[in-house]
Design goal:
Length: about 325
Amino acid sequence: MTQLLAKETEILEVMHTFRAMNTGVEITIFTTETDRAIAAGQRVEELFRDNEAALSRFRAQSELTKLNRAGYLENVSALLYDNIAAACRMHEFTGGIFDPTLLDALEAAGYDRSFELIAKGYPRLFTLHQLDNFGRWKPQDPHMIELDPAKKSIKLAPGVRIDLGGIAKGTTVDQAAGLLREAGFTDFMVSAGGDMYLEGKPPFHAEGWRVLVDDPNRKGAEPVAELFASNEAVATSSSTGRSWYLGRQRYHHLIDPRTHEPANTLIASVTVVAGSVQVADVLAKTALILGPEQTRQSGLIEKAGLKSLVFVTLEGEVIRL
């Protein structure tokens, strides 16, 4: 859906919204060239749909699903190869806290179909007897993923399966921002389910784009923090958003690789400002799993050159690092 919102100047706000990757996506472009902006929004939507078709573990015919099923593929697309290579790099960068090989643990926790289906009460794809092994999955090492750039091949060690999840979404937002930049737009936002890239500045906002940080446990309450960003990425990860119940136990999608269970955390959300959405998304999840103190001690803030990192606890306390 595309909307045109008139401003007091010749600049118009062109908005394009759609759903992809199991979340809402919003493109906002400030421009005088509305026809070009509308066309660009449609190209971004096509980009999201193409990437989802290739990288989603919920698509039976996606390239990622075929890799997980076969364990080895040659002449893979640059899209799949680059995303898995990036996931391996981020695993090393985060000291193993980000781990793309946790698909078994995710499914054991109940995340075996898209969150949209979980929210609608669709039954599990796998039986509950899998929970007998929950927490006893053998830790996988992404170095068991062999990449051959010459053959464009990916080989998974026996038992290894990959979930690209948020890193694929972050990469797609980065690609969408690049598409709009190449088209000549200088002031725009691409937002997808907590991941956003903010280019330039909206009219009459010299500080940049204003980003409000909410308390996930207090819907409708006043924001607990605000950030300003320009030519930067912002990502938020939450332990309360994508969560569900199995019996009386609540589970969420952020698996701690040290336990192979949903992270036992007092943090409700983490918001990160970084240079790319891919990095911001991964580090928001990593920081939520580690918590404020371990994140500070890890040196990730300095290594990644993060501009801002905001924790919101389950009690609503705001912690800035």
